[in-house]
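Appendix B, record 7
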Amino acid sequence: MGGFNLQELMSKAKAQYESLQKKMQETVVEASAGGGTVTAKMDGRKQLLSLKIDPEAVKAGDVEMLQDLVLAAINEASRKVDAQMQSTVGGMLGGLGIPGI
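Structure tokens (predicted):
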């Protein structure tokens, strides 16, 4: 097949997949909103690891603002995970040696 070894390619793909799974477990991103009023920490599988809220934000009593800040921090953490995983996957695909990728 002109030097194209499917079994070797599958073996490389499996190794890359396992590496990606490990990377997702090890990846931790942090994002904040409201100048640090709310901070969300998320792993590469998009599991929320922690959520910190400045006590002053609670004292202010503006529940709607606090809800918006929580959403913003979580959504930004999710975007950071996506960007980091996309970068990781792009680098891994290049390592498979498939022409055109």
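Remarks on this record: The chain has three helices and three strands. The chain has a mean pLDDT of 86.
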